[in-house]
Specification:
With about 250 residues, this protein is of the alpha/beta class. Helices cover about 50% and strands about 20% of the residues. The chain contains nine helices and seven strands; from the N terminus they run αααβαβαββαβαααββ.
Length: about 250
């Protein structure tokens, strides 16, 4: 997959997406933290704090296990592990997973099983019904081609009473921040990401995928349509990112 033009046509076919992320995998972490000024670490902390509260309220005796979908190079999966939560990451890009697996070797033991990683799609999760206590998706849901089917599949593998936490980029509603963010997203981000990764088309895709993704109440409606209850969102950093949460009744 050459990646040429993927930004313009927003090609979300699995082969196109996995190929694109495999190509940028070696520079992905560096560019990600550079372009977000490491604020993405704080966003993940918010999602994990939500899951920890869910864990503390849980009455089931079975272990609390989380599936981290579209886990990429494992940043969110490892963050779960560091907070004492057993996690399994799945992703369609093996190049990203290879980096996540390599990171396992550098993790200190803390009594929690090391993260496991599986090459799999959210549309066909290779686990039985109600296997996991919760699911996370950190900045990956906008890449799903058949989002409705994926959300229903995620709902299937979460136990009754379990939760979902979705982090995704958005566009600030503030009249001052919105145009500044648009300039950053459409011009600065593709320029820097393209220069470092040599794959400008991937970062043009990133900008367009954020613009096209349903936000705020629109995505909440999609979660509700998949069966989740108590669906809500919380704006982070002025609306640059949103944390969506829901519960399987």
């Amino acid at each position: 997959m050459s990646g040429e033009g993927i930004g313009e046509r927003l090609d979300k076919r699995e082969g196109a997406i996995s190929g694109m992320f495999n190509e940028i995998a070696p520079k992905y972490d560096f560019i990600n933290h550079l372009l977000s000024l490491n604020i993405d670490v704080l966003w993940r902390k918010r999602a994990i704090a939500f899951l920890k509260r869910c864990k503390s309220k849980r009455t089931r005796v079975a272990p609390f296990k989380v599936i981290d979908i579209a886990c990429g190079t494992g940043d969110s999966t490892i963050a779960l592990y560091k907070n004492g939560i057993a996690a399994t990451g799945i992703d369609i890009a093996q190049g990203m997973l290879d980096i996540a697996i390599e990171k396992n070797g550098k993790l200190p033991g803390n009594g929690t099983p090391l993260p496991e990683y599986i090459n799999a799609s959210a549309e066909n999760i290779p686990f039985g019904d109600e296997t996991f206590s919760a699911a996370t998706i950190c900045f990956g849901i906008r890449n799903f081609d058949n989002r409705g089917n994926c959300l229903k599949e995620i709902y299937r593998v979460i136990e009754k009473g379990g939760n979902i936490a979705v982090l995704e980029f958005a566009e600030p509603r503030n009249k001052i921040m919105k145009p500044l963010y648009s300039i950053y997203l459409n011009h600065i981000l593709p320029a820097i990401g393209g220069m470092v990764s040599k794959k400008r088309s991937a970062y043009k895709y990133l900008a367009l995928s954020i613009e096209k993704f349903p936000k705020y109440g629109d995505f909440c409606s999609e979660l509700s349509a998949a069966g989740f209850k108590e669906v809500k969102y919380r704006a982070l950093t002025g609306g640059v990112a949103l944390l969506y949460t829901g519960k399987k009744s």
